[in-house]
Amino acid sequence: MALIGIGSFTEALLLDVVTHRDPSLQRGFPQGERRVAPERASFVLLLDTARTRGWIQMDAHDFMAIGREYRNFVHLRKQRERGVIPDRDTVGMCWGPVLAVLNDLETTRDHTAV
Question: What is the C-alpha to C-alpha distance for residues 48 and 39, in angstroms, rounded to an integer?
Fold first, then answer.
């Protein structure tokens, strides 16, 4: 449950921050030839948007993507397929990238460019 909470917290935080920093994203996120409504923006799209805008660094982006994958281990089938049993260490390793995202967003909050 902690892994789901970590992922959901970060996803909601990114949605709020990126749409606040660039209000045009409230009309949709560009994705190829179309726009994705904010409420339908995937975690990956939010991470990519924050990274391409320079609001989070590459390390936070890449490690958070791994944490996002670990959120899928809530499903027993996924755990069996990969031979993973999430434990306290798993949660701890997934929390580190969240802190990096938070730190990057804090560092870039006053000098954001659209």
Answer: 16
- The two tokens of residue 3 are 């892994």
Residues ≥6 apart with Cβ < 8 Å to 101: 10, 13, 14, 50, 56, 60, 64
How far, in Å, CA of 112 to CA of 94, rounded? 26
Q: Which residues contact 17 (CB under 8 A, 6 or more apart)?
A: 50, 55, 105
User: Could you tell me the pTM of the whole model?
Assistant: 0.86
- pLDDT 10s digit of each residue in the chain, 114 long? 788 899 899 999 999 999 999 999 999 999 889 999 999 999 999 999 999 999 999 999 999 999 888 888 888 898 899 998 889 998 899 899 999 999 999 999 876 555
47: left (phi over 0), alpha (psi -120 to 50) or beta: alpha
Query: Please, which residues have CB within 8 angstroms of residue 85's CB and are 6 or more apart in sequence?
Result: 79
